[in-house]
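Researcher: Good morning. I'm working through a list of sequences from a screen, and I'd like to move beyond sequence-only analysis. For each chain I'm collecting a predicted structure so we can compare shapes side by side. This is the next one on the list. No need for commentary yet; just the structure.
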Amino acid sequence: MKSILKIFILILIFAANPVFSAANSDSIPVLVLPVDFEEKKENYYAFSEASEIFAQDIIKNFNKNGKINSPDLYEIRQKFTQNADIRNLTVNALKKYKTGNINYVSFAKISEEFSTNYVLIISSSVVTKETSVKRGIWEILDISSVFNISYPFKLETGALLIDTRNDIIMWSNVYTKNITNKAEYFTAQNYAQANAHLENLKMYSKDIISQDISQNIILRFFPKTINPIDIRSNDDNSAGGGALRFNKLIPQTKIDKKESNIGPDNYGDLIFEP
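Model: Good morning. Structure tokens for this chain:
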């Protein structure tokens, strides 16, 4: 009799709280991967790299919204602990991505492990007009502090959504932000000053980057309107109807490299207005 009563109570609880199960069944899983994920933090301050900070905030926005669900970085690391092959595959795929190449086969295997067909890759590095070498934000902070370098620094952040089932890029964007002060300095002589830079980066992530990226991704899956582009050619009349134009290669940034290093902040096709 007690067992029957317990079952009846459980049924009442689930019947009164159907929102969680419904939201999860309707939401779309997306795996968010920062390019610096699982790399050793060799910066002097042991701060998380910018790509990780941005990725974690995007994941929080997805899960809070409910239309998209994403494992957080801790859960992903737990999966890597249990499966070293997937970890190595992910690390190598992200390293290759840094060189401008997408290994669709690898990302398909990785996304399958997380029960999804969609991977969002977040990259972030510091660029200058003095050199074409891209470095991590904390590495630049360390270098500029030691050598008292004062030329302008730009934080360039990229977001790219991959459909691993069809081997296409669904959406991408590039954001650039001036990270120097009015005197064109980006230095820290002590931990307190460095931590202040970290807090500014977190605010930039929370208020602008993660807001815009998460909104753009949600709109890709839940658009208000879609205007297909007819890609039929005169030589091939076999194609039926219009089709959305997608790409398989990493698109080049629309921002001129020289201008991006000395010009104002640029947030690409910004939807979220800070």
